[in-house]
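Why does residue order matter? Because the sequence determines the fold. Keep that principle in mind as you read this record.
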Amino acid sequence: MLSKSPKKQRKALKNMPIHKRGRLFSVHLSKELRKQYGVRSLTVRKGDVVEVVRGGFKGHANKVASVDRKKALLHVEGITIAKSDEKQVARPVHPSDLVLTKLDVSDPLRKKKLDRLAKDAKEASK
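Structure:
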């Protein structure tokens, strides 16, 4: 993004194509996972376990229930708010407020990407 204007920043995020919004879902890994995989951050997916590190739900850890690429928000199981009619609804959380604590590596493509990123990080540190 080239402009410093908040108006243009918001417009660029709103008009960003969905396939490029995936970069907005990069979440830091916990210290244990960082040592294990040699990677600092990774794109969060449904099924990963995350911990909220900022905001009113700080300290809450649970699975990611859904990922909303259109609004660039996540829904974490157990994080709900009460509406005026006292109905409980999922509270969206921004990816920057989270830390990955457990990865869902059942997908072979994700495992392959983790291996590739770890290899690249090891070569860069030499």
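The chain has a mean pLDDT of 91.
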